[in-house]
Design brief:
This protein has a single domain, classed as 3-Layer(aba) Sandwich (Rossmann fold), CATH 3.40.50. The protein has a 5-stranded parallel β-sheet with strand order 2-1-3-4-5, sandwiched between helices. It starts with a strand and ends in an 8-residue tail after the last helix. It is globular and about 50 Å long. It is α/β, with parallel strands linked by helices.
């Protein structure tokens, strides 16, 4: 079984993005053990001075979860045309490491528009050398009308796109590391 760590950019308890992660989890469950990281908003604010020798214990636990995962799924909304602060903060704690280098990553941006956050997330993940594939990236615009917080997808085209992403991510997790591909 492959291990995937899921990061939800929304910190809302009942968000459409968390629902999407649950949908993906159901579709991957035959080959993938998915763990949702629920402490994104509890991570301390990034401070390079605290990252020199020993990062805060909670940050080290977060990094270990990424390090020990075979892949990472990030599903996020767009806030004010950018990434949510808690998600950006979490990623910033990883910049001084190589834990995302050549790690298979799937990106889903689900929001009203989402295009700018999706583009920003792609750029950030490329910068930290995550192993990205076109087939494991998806922008879902108008997400609230397509997916509920339980992971029920009411829009058939969105369900098809998510199913394709899941299949591609399973394949990606099995492949040897190939580097940063967009």
């Amino acid at each position: 079984m492959k291990k995937v760590l899921a990061l939800c950019g929304s910190t809302r308890t009942h968000s459409a993005n968390l629902g999407i992660i649950r949908y993906v989890e159901k579709n991957l469950s035959d080959e993938v053990q998915l763990e949702i990281f629920n402490e994104l908003s509890a991570l301390p604010h990034f401070n390079p001075d605290l990252d020199k020798d020993n990062a805060p214990e909670m940050v080290e636990r977060f990094r270990d979860k990424i390090r020990n995962a075979d892949g990472v799924l990030i599903c996020t909304p767009e806030y004010v045309f950018s990434l949510p602060g808690a998600l950006k903060n979490a990623i910033e704690w990883c910049v001084s490491t190589t834990i995302f280098s050549e790690k298979p990553v799937a990106l889903i941006t689900a929001s009203a528009s989402g295009a700018l956050a999706h583009e920003s997330l792609q750029l950030v993940m490329k910068t930290i050398y995550a192993d990205l594939r076109k087939e494991t990236q998806l922008l879902i615009q108008g997400a609230k009308g397509k997916v509920d917080n339980n992971g029920t997808v009411s829009h058939s085209d969105t369900a098809d796109e998510l199913n394709k992403l899941c299949a591609a991510f399973k394949t990606h997790l099995k492949e040897p590391k190939a580097g940063n591909i967009l």
